[in-house]
Amino acid sequence: ISDQKPLGCWSVKHGQILTCPVVCNFETHEYIAVHDDKVLRIWKNEDLNLDKAFKATLSAEVYRIHSLPQGGPLVLFRGGAVRTLDALLEAPQQEIENLISAEAIKWSGAFMEGQQPVLIFTTEKVKFFVYVQKPQLSRLHKYKLEQQKSAKPRCFTAHITNQTVTLLCLCSNDSVYQVLIPLQKDTEEEEEEEILSKSLLLNLSLSGAVLKGSSLVVMDKDHIAVLGGQPEPGRRPKEYLTIWNTKFQTLQTSKELPLGTSGQLWCYEEKFFLIHGKVLTVIMYKRETSSLAAAVGKLKDSQTFDVSSFVNWNTLEDEELVVSFQSQESVALKAESSMNLRSKRSTVAGQPGTLSVGQLLLKLKDASNYVLENELKKLMAKAPTPDLQATIGCVVTALTDRCKRNPKYYPQSILQEIVETRNLSYSLCPDLMVVALEKKDLHLLQICLERFPDIPEEMTYACLKAFLSLSEDHLKNVDINLDSAICYIDVEFNDMEVKTEILENGFSEEVDQDMCDTKIPKESQSDGESCPVGLQKAALLNAVLHSPYTETFLLPHLKNLPAEQAILFLRYLYYLYVKCSEKVNTTLPGIRSPTINQIMDWMCLLLDAQFTVMVMLPEAKDLLSNLHKFVRAQVRFYSELNKIEGSLRELQRLNHLRESQTYSIEVLEII
């Protein structure tokens, strides 16, 4: 989620249906899925075809799989039985008992209590029931939930503290109720069905109107998050994400979600996950100690909050998840207008010279380069904090917005310094590379390509196309970091040195003639063709080779690359490939030089995208022919090495068995 890039995609066959959420096994780093209720699938990240993954057909229908970081995966069946994944894999067709008769499971959750996993689930059959089980023990505890006609549970969540389960119910009367369940010790005698009483925890009211909740999650023992909407006659309901303090029963903060949601909310490692419009939105938050002063302070004005102190709402400002300068300015003004007495005192007493993000952005809005540079130096000199990177990202976004409004304004040195000294990402300042492309700031683009882990494939392609289209004369006057290319381009060797290196890797002229019935390509000889691009362009192209990408999403863009540029890029990749093959360790010298894997991956990707064009163009014929011959020579050479691999291993084994104090002469015959 930090890179905002898809890493893998798997699908079941047509007609099959995934019937419960897929989970990850933390112990084995495998994915676990169930389709068609009974068919278990297990696979790893490198597996491409789900149909070829491990398959086991179970004897009963699965409701949910829960994966715990320390306890291992637990499988909950629709009949209420629980099994560990390991126990199921030993005997997939084992009999699964039905413990809940005609009841339907409505919700389930798994937790760790000490070293033991605890599984809790609720069921409905006219009335609601709660089941608590420790899978390592055989005892299942059943409870009946107190019935209230006006407060029918719609959804549940829970947490465990001090051997007590706190079950929270979001009910039909737009209130949240709390149920406390002590974890009992395992006993053999039968127990009577205990009735659990519900206590009112919160009435959901936002700005004087009822909030109809659809989903809730626990943030910590004192805070919950509720996703819901406020109906409006004749209009689509306004949806909100709200944070509530359960200790003092107050609203902590809220945010409207204008693009609508799916009604589902997830929480994991201090991040909220929800569908906002057509995108998966991730909202970070930080826990703060619950205090009466904070809770009362939030109640003074229920419409505007100092939200920056608790939840980072930046990802919700618009559909593209981009924080514009204007939105930051409005948040800053709202925060200032609603600052309560507690926050004012803490500012005065704690850090008198510290500005909030909104105040800083307002100060830098029309500042001169001198003032801007000084303020940024102060900001970057601060000790690293979880919020500092996001703050710097907001500042960079504000600067790029200013560049868009004023074409004459472009603080090149400031932007380069920020990117070089801070571990930023594309998602923190998405307009930076767009502005750099417009300004033709090649050095900044080079830095971003080498450092940003989450550049969209469309932007990577735009940079590649721009670099290939630039003339060599123009690039000679541009300041570019040449460390990745200067050590191997246009460096002269004498014939003997080159021939020796090629012979080490099996590519002497005589060997290649014997194996391929053709002479070795000129590009691999000292008097052959030099690098097809200049030093500056090579350094820029190397930056593109370093940029992470997903093949599925880059391939459609590469198909649009003009034929002339595609051939030039392939010639450069072939040049790098030959250079790597001249070395025994297949490693190019220099800092951030392309690796053999990067070169091969890009070469294959480019050929996949442009193969039809390459075959049809006469000027590409010799290049493809030479590439084919060179690759074939390498394949045959490594094939010969594989033939003697067994003999070399045997020799290594004999060396280990030989006594170190004896002297012997042995002849090993390689057949």
Automatic annotation (TrEMBL):
One GO MF term: RNA binding
Domain Nucleolar protein 11 N-terminal: 1-286
Nucleolar protein 11 C-terminal domain ranges (all copies): 360-669
Subcellular location, record wording: Nucleus, Nucleolus
UniProt key word Transcription: yes
Leader sequence segment: none
Superkingdom of origin organism: Eukaryota
InterPro entries: NOL11, Nol11_C, NOL11_N
Pfam family, one: Nol11_C
UniProt keyword terms in alphabetical order: Activator, Nucleus, rRNA processing, Transcription, Transcription regulation
Gene Ontology CC: one annotated term: nucleolus
One biological process term in Gene Ontology: maturation of SSU-rRNA
PANTHER family per UniProt: NUCLEOLAR PROTEIN 11
UniProt name for this protein: NOL11 protein
Biological source species: Motacilla alba (White wagtail)
